[in-house]
Amino acid sequence: MGEIRTKLWLATKNQGKVKEFQHFFAELGWDVEAVPQGAPDVVEDRDTFAGNAIKKAEEIAKHYNMPALADDSGLEVDALGGRPGVYSARFAGEDASDEQNNQKLLAELANVGEESRGARFISSIALARPGRETLVSFGTVEGSILFAERGTEGFGYDPLFLLADRNRTLAEISLAEKNSLSHRANALRSMIEMLKMEAGDE
Length: 202
Ligand SMILES: O=c1nc[nH]c2c1ncn2[C@H]1C[C@H](O)[C@@H](COP(=O)(O)OP(=O)(O)OP(=O)(O)O)O1
Ligand SMILES: [Mg+2]
Known about the structure:
Blueprint: E1 7-10, H1 15-26, E2 31-34, H2 49-64, E3 68-77, H3 98-108, E4 118-129, E5 132-145, E6 161-163, H4 175-181, H5 183-201
Parallel strand pairs: 1-2, 1-3
Antiparallel strand pairs: 3-4, 4-5, 5-6
The protein binds 2'-deoxyinosine 5'-triphosphate and magnesium ion.
């Protein structure tokens, strides 16, 4: 079998996501690259993860006339009625840092007991391709929010997110392990299944 090289833009400016995508796709032998810093900024103004993921992927695919993959993701906390959800990146304000968002989350949950701190990460992945319909998939991972940060791996809310059924946060496991169980990896695996089905239909 000849070598298959799939050139795909990763429509994200989040270096944490780029690392996870590149590790994931390296195993499949796909050629994926993060969009340059000068790529168009996509305004994430939709009110669903899928809506924003589709917008990011389609605008970059159109700009470069190349396939583009985007993730829109966030944290849903039960005690906050599902917030911050699609607003996770801006929880502590526009251009908030991960640290500011984590501090805001801890403050909002300061008086919430351990039994009520359930949460999940959600990812929606969109794959946009010139001249073809955009594919969309979803993935989740269940856990709870700690009272203080633990671990130094990963990015975003990882140090506060304790995985269900194990005494580890997402910042206390390796990149390979995160890619075996994360919301984003689950959404990516579902996307690969959709591509296989599509190939089978042709
Ligand atoms: O695995 C994760 N571990 C920790 N935190 C995470 C994760 N996945 C999403 N998150 C948080 C980070 C950010 O607060 C928001 C995503 O916002 P989201 O707009 O999708 O990403 P982003 O603005 O960082 O990069 P971009 O839009 O260029 O892909 O949820
Ligand atoms: Mg974003």
